[in-house]
Structure formats: structure tokens, C-alpha cells
User: Fold these one by one.
Assistant:
Number 1:
Amino acid sequence: MGENLLVLLGTFGPASVAVALVILGLLSQRLGAVTKTPPYYRWFYVAAGLVVSGVVFRLLTLGSGTGDLEMAYVLTFALGVSIGVAVAWKYWSWLFGERRG
């Protein structure tokens, strides 16, 4: 019982990453509309979907001890965060260039 509660509470962290990715998607959509950038922001929503699916896989492991679902959790979470970082770098890297000037 106690271990299942910890796993359940442990899903709040990845869920908050998914929320952050959605917020970045919304901000990037507005930035892209102003700067006429191609709609790469949609990839933030794909990344958030992958992270949420990882959270679902993690919740499915509550009652069972299957290693396949735990591996699916790790892979989908890592892929979602990697996509999010790549798209954030594409959209927001101009901030680093402004710092030098």
C-alpha cells in the first residue's frame, strides 16, 4: 500500500512537466505568430502527449510489477522531454544571442 502511494505521488512530477510543455507550446504559438515562424510549436503538444502517456504507463504499473510498462514509461517520458528540449532550443535560442550584445 505504501509503495503504491509513493508511485502515485511520484506521477505529479512528470505530470507537471507535461503542463510545462503545454504552456511552452502556447507561448511559442504566440511568439511564432508575431515572428512568422513555421508552426514548430505543435511538437510541444506531441511531447506533452508522450509525457502524459508515460504517466499513464506509470499508473498502470501500480498493481502489477511488469517491467515492460516501466520501460515504456521511461522511454516515452525521455522521448517527450527530448522533443520538448529540441523545440524549445529552436524557438527560444535567440534569447542567448541577445545576452552577448
Number 2:
Amino acid sequence: MRSVDSNVVVGKSKDFALRCIRLYQLLVKDRSEFVLSKQLLRSGTSIGANVKEALRGQSKADFAMKLNIALKEASESEYWIELLGESKILNEHEFKSIHDDCTELIKILTSIVKTTYRSIHNS
């Protein structure tokens, strides 16, 4: 349905997934934090997987549904990041950096989902 090459949301979601992987490794190794970091690893890497799947959607509705799942995973990731920050497992700089990336992804995904649903309902 859409070109996968040089797609902004594909790149940003993959970069975010890689950040979540590195953060998970740091938290497990250096801070002995296993529960919240595992939850973030799962939701944070799922965003990009759902974005990629959306791009191969069979219809606009399928595309929108998969991107909406990616948006839900991004919102879940934001929750785990907030818990990691508020519990002081992440320092302020670490929290702000990854939280900003997550917020940006949420904004992009929200915009795409809203636009896609509008185009489906106006067809």
C-alpha cells in the first residue's frame, strides 16, 4: 500500500525499538531491573513490527487497524517509561530522552491514524 523505503515512521519506530533494546540491556545488567524493562522491551519493539505490518496491509482499513495497534503499543511504552522515571530507575536525562522519542512517535502515529480513518469514512 505504501513505500517502505525512507518512511519516517518506519525509521523512527525502528530507532525507538533499538533504544528500548539497549535500555533493557542496561537496566538488566547495571541496575538489576527485570520487570518494567521487560515490559518496555516488548511494547517498544512491537511498535515497529506493527508499523511494518501496516505497510503491507491489504486495505486502508487494515492499514489503519495495524497502525492503531502500533499507537496502543506506543502508549503502553510511554506508561512503562513513566514508571521507570517516577521510580527513579531512570535518571532525569535518561527519562526525558526516551520519553521525548516515545511522545514523538505517539504524535506521528496519532496523526496518521486520524487521517487514515477520515479518508476511509469520507470515501
Number 3:
Amino acid sequence: MVAPPHRPAMPVQTPFHPRTSALCSSLFWKEWAGYHAVRSYDTCHEREYHAIRHAAGLIDVTPLYKYDVTGPDAAALLSRVMVRNIARLKTRQVTYCCWCDDAGKVMDDGTVWKLGKHRYRVTAAEPTYSWLLESARGLDVRVEDITDRLAALALQGPRARDIVVAAIEPEGRSLAELKFFRLARGTVRGPRGAHPVIVTRTGYTGDLGYELWVDREHALDLWDAVFEAGRPHGIWPAGIDALDVTRVEAGFIMNGVDYFSAHHCLLETRKSTPYELGLGWTVDLERAPFIGQAALKRERARGSSWALAGVVYDWDAYEELHARFGLPPQVPSGACRTGVPIYGTLGAARRQIGYATTTAWSPLLKQYLGLATLEARHASVGARVDVEVTVEYRRHRIPATIVETPFYNPARKRA
């Protein structure tokens, strides 16, 4: 086992910082997993959002945690930890999944890649090294934290394919043929030479997209090559605020916002299972034992108490509520991560049945959307609920409709 590198107490710069800092005219930053991350390059993220949806946005996603898992028992370890049977992955295939504690409560979600025989890579939202190490006891496997050695860019949007084809020389077949949730190897060229790059057909925007992974010392050559190739296609750097709106439109949950990692929760009621988070499709129960399997089998048999749902606010009611105060309808410019109570009817009574975890105005769909955790019996698509809205320091309720997610799902995402 290889110990993870020491992390300083204060946020540090990503390898792309010389480029992102020069472009960040807003000076609007946040801390993400120990790194400085741009929230928006302009004072408002709208141009970045529209680049993702109509051209291409380039996002520094280096802060994601990354682990290489190698050795004869690598597949056995990951199959023991993940709710998916990782042993079934084919070389150069990527899968999305989550991992649970013994009680079947989600600890984190991320991706697993199969790089080759006995060679895998895990990406995660938060530190996972100790959990992998603890779960590897008795197995012939090596776990290495490569988070700080690997830089990563997300290239997302309808012109992403044209840009990645122009910027990266493929190893073998054209990158234009790279399928959804597959990976390929290639080379990027710059003033400092030619450097190996891994391209994955993945992303967090729900659009056509790629993520590009390179050793940190070659990060600037990768940025420059992608940006130059993207100029004819309208490429633009995008920050976390634009990413947040697109991931809500895509119906993607976020650790620490739409759910909480089980090993951080002080209250049992804050913990969630894959079924309660809409991730039941990732769970492969009928196989060799894995962590949380017994608890998840019991839940599947009895049914889940909670469910993830999409919520669309009734805009006429929202507008009318503001009009009572002589105001135009006001929505936050970005995604709002403040929990909002949701109410439903039980018998003759109207009571709280859940809460919206993230809400956002969708510039593309022209709707006010929310991701919500609801009592499962109230989460039927088409059901009408009431959402709490605060106007002029007073709390009100307006109607909303439960809908399927994703809210936005273009065909090009998988094409």
C-alpha cells in the first residue's frame, strides 16, 4: 500500500492555476477538496453555462480524489467495496457507482475505470483511501493515492467531440468513435513535448462530454492545446457555479448537498441508501458478498422509506406570489443548496413530506427546478406538492409537480 501525500492545511493551487487565475476576472474562488477552484470567471456564470449548453465549457476538475488499485485481487477488492460487480468491467470501460457501509448507507459515489488486467482507477468526491485500505485486508492488491499527481479537465458541450479530436492524437481509433463511459489513450503536444493523456467519455453536466487526465507537470500543455483547438468552436472556461446548474438539470446528486456521506453523519436520519438516492440501478445484489449487501437485500424486499424526485415549481403561482408584494419574480442566479421544506396531503392534513436539497433556475428549460428527497409514498411522478418559498422575509407555499429526472437529457450525451 502507498500512503496518500500530505495535504497542507490551506487550499493549494491546481496545476492549471496559471491559466485559470489569468482568466478569472471576478476573483470569485472557493475551496474544493483542498484546492482553489474558480466559482465563476465573470461576475456571473451565465456565459459559462451557455458555453456548456451551446458550445463547449472547459472545467478544472483536478480536485477529484483519484486512486489506482492494482494487483491480482484488484477486481475482488473493488467488487467487495462497490455496489456494482466491478469484476464484470471490460478493459477501457468506465462505470458509475457508489459504495456503502455495512448498513447499506452510502458513503460516496464516483467512477471506476478498468485500465487493463488487474489495473483499475477510482475517482471519488472525498477521501476514500483509508476505506479502500481497510477493505483490502488479506488481498493481494496495491492501493495508491494519485490525487495530487494527476490533473484533470472536463470538456463539456455539443462541440466537445470536435475539440477533443483536434486537440488529442489518439492511440488507435479516432476519438470521435469513443463510446459513452469508455476510455482511450492519446497524446497531447505542446512546447514541452508530447505527453500521454487518458480521455474518458464522462462528465457531470448531462451533455456530450469528455474528461482529460494528464500528469500534473504537463497540465499547461493540455490546457493550451484544448483551448487552442476550441477557439473556432466557442470554447470558454467554466467554473463551479455553471457546473452546479447543469448537474441539477441532469438530475445528478452531490455528496454533502443532496445526501451526506454515512461516515460523517451524526444522525441516523441523515444517512441514505442507494435506493433512496435514485441509484438502485447501480446495485448488483445477486453476486458474491459485498459491503452493505445484506442490508440492501432487506430494503429491496420491504421497500424504501425515501425516494429522490425531481420537482418543477408552478411558475404562475411563483409569479403571482411575488406580485402580491409588488415585485417581479426573483430566483437565485445560481443553484441554491439550502434545504426547502415540501408539503403533501395525508388524509385531510397537509404536512411536511420531504425537502428539496438543491434548486436552480434552468436558463435552457425556462423552469425553476429542484432535486428533492420525499417520503416514497409521496414521490409518484405527476403528484402535486407544495414547496416553501420565502418572499420579503415571510414563508409561503406554492404548488409544484413531481417529475422524472433528468430534467434535461440530450441525445448527443450518449451519441
Number 4:
Amino acid sequence: MWVPNLKKDAKKNVIALGWVSFLMDTSSEMIFPILPLFLANVLGVPKAFIGLIEGIAESSASVLKVFSGWISDKIKKRKLLVATGYTLSALTKPLFAIATSGFHVLGARFIDRLGKGIRDAPRDALISESIKKQRRGKWFGFHRMMDTSGAILGTVVAFLLLRWFTNNYRTIFWLATIPAFLAVAVVLLFVKDVRHKINKKVKLSLKGFSKSYKMFILTSVIFNLGNFSYAFYVLRAQNLGIPTAVIPLVYLTYNIVYAIFAMPAGIWSDKIGRKKVILLGYLMLAATAILFSFITSNIFVWLIFALYGLQIAFVNGTSRAFVSDLSPKHEKGTGMGVYQTATGLAILPASIIAGALWDTLGAHAPFIYAAILSITASIMLVAFVRK
């Protein structure tokens, strides 16, 4: 079996893919932090429908991930799927600018997330193949750091443009198309496939996967059933009295903390084990949700968003590295795809339930729900997942 050259592949794939995510997230975060405000304040969309938009968008993307991951294992051509996914997402960015109803935004989100569904599992499998197992947490953390650094830049740009153009959301959406197409250019020019010498047949099945892998998938699904869309955290901040123009800065706090701690969390997982780092992240989300449920002053919103960013730094990249560790060598794409599909599908009921709870029981209800499921997932991780 061919062993990848860490120095060469990390520079040409992991670093290049980091810049791709940086640019695409710059584009996305110029749109998504203010999209709930655009839906609620400009288009007059109810909270439950906002939850439906987010849930359908993320879940539809997730369905494709298992198939795109499996196909990339089968054809041994991950770059083709990565480039296709990023191109599709870039092409849909202008659709947000011309939307005149909630259904238009739903369509744009749906197509944009299809692109994400095509690219994510092959991309993460390509990252995994480009680095050694002992440093997998570090480099997945690096990728998450670059991804979130783009989110920081996009949020700052959105904040400045929101003030400059006086809540002219559509102009901001148009400008967001520029970094999206730059991301596609980087994929095409600098990302390369990793050579394979593993000739085993690849089936769309979990027969060759361990019990620990399967139990971690189940645990992650339970966790993500309570990990609903960021849109509700944004709306909660506004509900607590944070001015609309300041919302991007609150969201920026979350992204800064995420970016700072994503790579250290990955390095830490290389040293002390993935489970311990993921468990801390689960408990942090429970604490975040409890605080958001019971606070009545907007003074603490900034600190809670920082904790929200910290938990994602601990969970996101480390979970991907853990899934890669637990997947067979010739089925990294399939393993990553199944994980991303399963957790992504959980977002649909999570966001719909959160919206319904908010509309019927009040703003505190969805966060209590999130805390309960986060604690449940923590217990399952300790009790049932064995490496």
C-alpha cells in the first residue's frame, strides 16, 4: 500500500483545501448571519418556516454525502467531486440577492447545500489520506481553523457593509459571490488527488465497520438532534435586545473563538484521545443552551456565543478525525459520508422542533431541549463508544 508523503500532500492538499474553505466561508458568512434577519424583517417569514428552511437545506445536503463519499472511494477521484460541489455552491450565491419570498430562499439554500453534500465527504477523505494518523487531529483542526477564519472575515465584511449600505441585504448578497468563485479557482488549480494502490471492492455498506464506529454515529445523531441551526442563536440574541446592526459582531465572537481553538483542540485530541475532547464539547453545548434559556440580559450574550464557538471547536474537527480513525483504510470516503449524512439528517427535525418550540412555548424552550439531548449524548459517548 502506498504511504502518502506528509510534507508534500499536506502543503498541496490540506493547505490548499484550507484556503478553499476560507474563501467559500467568507462568501457564506457574508450571507448566512444576516439571512435570518432578512427572512424575518424583510420577507416577513415566521420562525417555524425559518427553521424549516434551515432543516431542509442541511438535511438535503446530508443525503448526498454518503453517496458522494462512496463514489469517491469507488472511482478514486475525489477532486472531481470536490470541484463539482464547490462550483455548484458558487453558482447559487446570486440567488439570495434576487429572492422575494421565503420559498425562493428555501430553493437557494437547498441548491447551495447540495453542492456542500457533493463535496464534503470526498474533501475530508482527501485530507485524511494526505496526512499521517498520528497528526490527523492537528490537520483536521487546521482545516476547521481556516474554514472559520473565512467565516470571521465574512462576518466582519457583512457588519461593515450592513452599516455602509444601511441594511441593504441584497447588495451584500451580490458581493458575496466574489470569494465563492475564487474558491472554485483554487480547487481547480492547486488541489490534487492522492494516488491509491488499494484494490479492494468498495460496497455501500457498513459491514466492514466496527461496533465503535456505529455507536459513535448513533451518539452523534442524538447530539445533533439538539444541535439545531445557528439561526436560532442569532434570533435569540436579537430577542434579548442586541441591535440588528450589532448581530454580525456577536456572531463574530463565536467564529473567533472557534478559529482560535479548532487547531489546538485537534492537537489535544492527538495527545489525550478523541473521546475526551468530544465529551467536553458535548457538555459545553449543554451549558451554552442552559445559559441561553435562562438569561434575561443581553450583557452575557457575548460570553455565551464565545462558549458556543468553543464547543464547536472541540466537537467538529475532532469528530471528523475520530470517524477517520474508525473507518477502514479503503473506505474513508464512505465512513465520512455516512457520518455526515446521519448527523446532517438530524438537523431537519432539530431545527423544525426548535422553531415549533419557540413559537408555542417561548424562546427558552428550544434551548432546554438542546441541553437535554447534549447530556444524553455525553452519557452515550462514555458508556457505549469504545475505540
